[in-house]
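INPUT
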Amino acid sequence: MELIFEKSKDKRGCDILPSCDVPVVEPDGKYLRRKELHLPRMSETDISRHYTELAGCTYGINNGFYPLGSCTMKYNPKVNEETANLPGFLNIHPLQTAHTVQGCLEVMKLAEEYLCEITGMDYMSLQPAAGAHGEFTGLKLIRAYHRDRKDDKRTKIIVPDSAHGTNPASAAMAGFSVINIPSTKEGYVDLEELRKAAGEDTAGFMLTNPNTVGLFDRNILEITKIIHDAGGLAYYDGANLNPIMGIARPADMGFDVVHLNLHKTFSTPHGGGGPGSGPVGCRAILEKYLPAPRIQKKEETNESIGRVKEFYGNFLVVVKALTYILTLGGDGLKKASENAVLNANYMMNQLKNTYPVPFEGPCMHEFVMSLEELKKETGISALDIAKVLLDYGIHPPTMYFPLIVHEALMLEPTETESRETMDRVIAIFKKVYEEAQTNPQGLWDSPKNTPVGRPDEVTAARNPILRYTF
Amino acid sequence: MGTYVPNTVKEQQDMLNSMGYSKVEELFSNIPEEVRMKRPLDIPDGLSEMEVRRKLIQIAEKNKVFKSIFRGCGAYRHYIPSLVKQITSKEEFVTAYTPYQAEISQGTLQAIFEFQTMICELTGLDVANASVYDGATAAAEAVIMCRERKRKKAVISATVNLDITETIKTYCSGTDTEIVTVPEKQGRTDLEKLEEYAGEETSCILIQQPNYYGQLEDCDAVKKIADKNGAKFIMSCNPISLGILKTPGEYGADIAVGEGQPLGMPLAFGGPYLGFMAASESMMRKLPGRIVGETKDTKGRRAFVLTLQAREQHIRREKASSNICSNQALCALTASVCLSVMGKKGLEQAAALCISKAHYLAGRLCELEGYGLVYTGEFFHEFVTTCQGDARRVMEGLEQHGILGGYPLQGENSGNILWCATEMNSKEEMDELIKILQEVNG
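OUTPUT
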């Protein structure tokens, strides 16, 4: 497909702005740009068609099944988009006086309150813009807590090897060193390893629970106790909150700080990679360190970790999440969680005799299949299976994660899929498995029906072309 | 109560039965009794779509929408071309995840590739990433990119927006990078002090252009000081201004960052906005976040992929250049569509309108008693004046007329007002503002 720059034609363009109604002023020549500026020169018709064409080569939730494990690709309700587009939210300057933004503050206060109730935490900050940003913020709270207590030797964050890559990366960015501990063969936290790792230098421990193989860690109270006994704090990665709303709360599991992903659990869209929103909740002991500025407090504390971004967070994303919470209500949130778990178990049960599931169920909202045996037998890898699924119009599951499972495919159907959609997908998965046995060559050539075939990623990284050259 | 679960209660029960369960609770057997919630969530009952929409409309109505806005300080009201909203509302763009599966994500990937190209064009630099959260985190990531073993000081001008500086401080507080603030002189970076503060330990110098007070900095002089000390030069820029102002590339900056909100994003009470980052080629592998590259597919067709992933958290974990995963992709698309519709001519026009309107407004304000320009240097679309009376109260007085006046500054500048004018402010509207202020002045 042609780039927008390749469609440009001299002298073409759109007429958007009026002529100047005041005397024209130009800055001194020394401040002026001399370098040519290449931007598209196109009629509105052609720009519109260009992006419509691009949209046609993009697969969203509305195009079909999107079981991307750990990403909670649930349906994005359209009423959320409508409420986030109300002029009373869109046209509000972030530095208006408080009495002119009472509606925005009410949105934030309600969202904070409900998210606290769902997690069991005492306080919530909506400032972080995404999950990883929330992790960074939460870890900064842990750091501030130990510093305040003059407990400066606590420099280490323990992370299980099943964790998302953002966990260790966030810990390093927040100034900690990272201790990776292995998981048990069942995919749980290895209590012995945790005991060995926890000690006087432990600042905290990060855990996703249910974990990244889709299992709720039965030992969760023991785990958080080990950390607390060692003097550390427990961090809850909320990437997998979707199965436990109204069923179990991170605070009741013994966690001290949590981040949520509004773009996962609370149905706000991912936009092809953002904007998300990653609120951070904490217990009262950490409140004074929360990022400034805060909503309710008139005075900011000196102990705050400071600002983590401009203004107050991805506000419109919060509007969408609040709309979702108000629509479902407390009972509806619990039903959403139950159905997320039901759907995942249904798919797992239908598939486990074809694709081995290394961990005993029932699972929570997602499950992991291992294609290690299939690869040994046929040479067909998790990647190959994923690419065939593209030809069937399905977004593949998460591939090669968690790292502790070889040839992993991680499926998360979410609660917004119907039984017949899942039945259709299950049949396709089984058919593809048969094809792998009977006609592996056909799979290696996949995908065949997509706008492009498998791209050469090695060359892309070796000889990077990162922009169009005029 | 609204729900997005398609399966009926009977279907749910059938699915349970097919697995040999009778109740959904049995699926949660792994959760220890002690951590289970024993009561329902204390959140009101769900609402129908019509009710929830009404409720949010009622909440939104508690905000005041101003017909005239003369306030900027990092969030700017610009005209948003009609096509922008239409394109960025397309469900495929809105509901897709990060483009991990390139074959069915060519639309998102090509849009990012085009965005990267436009950011390179605006800034005059070689490479750009797919976006970060906002202008402040972009600046913080840029400072982190410049870290070197023997260079531990990042020198930041006091004329950089304080929100940006504070964000950088938070990002650097866990590391061994020290933040040194260079004072201002006449609303611009004090270059003599900058000479003094910069040294062989300086990793980078960060300047905002136009700066927080709207003043244009002498970036050639800053570049010289950076070079003399072997430090990197970071510029934080307003993207509209780059339609006419000298680019970071022409100044010899190593990294350019900025807040992309003026490119088609509404004020929206501060977010979501868009952080953009561009750098010279030599710093390419230190850029954080997603980067899209061009390659070919198995049949030799052009294809786009996420590339240089060896920098990123899912590969490098604790050794990654940044922890960033989600970015602001849809906002980057917004900026791309906006720049496509505006084109070179439109962007130049927007910049020229901004600067002309701001000068007209400044001139008219200076006619009032008690109002005068605080700084004498050249400015873009923001400027600082003194005020007759209590600045806060005067600005609050304007609110009754549907006008959001300039921003009453704090700290050393307390009592002064930071004004902003864009193409959105008509001459008529500015004259009206002056008339009201005259009346207030009495």
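end of record. DSSP finds 14 helices and 16 strands in chain B.
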